Amino acid sequence: MRSTALQERLASMPVPPDATTEREVQQLVWAFVDDRRAAGWLPEHIIAAFKQITREAGLSPSSMLKKEGEEWTTVDAFLIEMIDWCIHRYFHPE
């Protein structure tokens, strides 16, 4: 499945990515979601697997909880964006 290519790309890219890299990663995320959805995975299982891939690629959230007044880190913001891509792609496949 497409998780290896996604994990390798995430591990090798700078955060925040440039526009070209971001689009490439988005395509890999969408392919990952498409594969899992076609295999019958539920959206929550896809997101859990995606989060595991990001952690294994070295992209971990700064904290499990964001305290009032704290800003999102660059990595946090990109993780949120990628999870949004997962949700959108699952419910709105093209």
Structural summary, described in words:
The protein has helices spanning 3-12, 19-38, 43-56, 74-91. It is mainly α and 94 residues long. It has one domain. The chain starts with a helix and ends with a helix. The mean pLDDT is 93.
Summarize this entry quickly.
This protein is mainly α. It contains four helices and no strands.
- Kindly state the number of beta strands: 0
Number of helices: 4
Stretches where pLDDT is under 50 for at least 5 consecutive residues are none
Q: Give the helix proportion (percent range).
A: 55-70%
Radius of gyration: 13 Å
Q: What global shape is seen?
A: globular
Secondary-structure-based class equals: mainly alpha
Question: Proportion of β residues?
Answer: under 5%
How do the SSEs run, as a string of H and E?
Answer: HHHH
Quick one: biggest sheet? none
Count of distinct structural domains: 1
End-to-end gap? 19 Å
**Average pLDDT metric:** 93
Notable characteristics:
94 residues; mainly alpha; 4 helices; single chain
Topology:
Blueprint: H1 3-12, H2 19-38, H3 43-56, H4 74-91
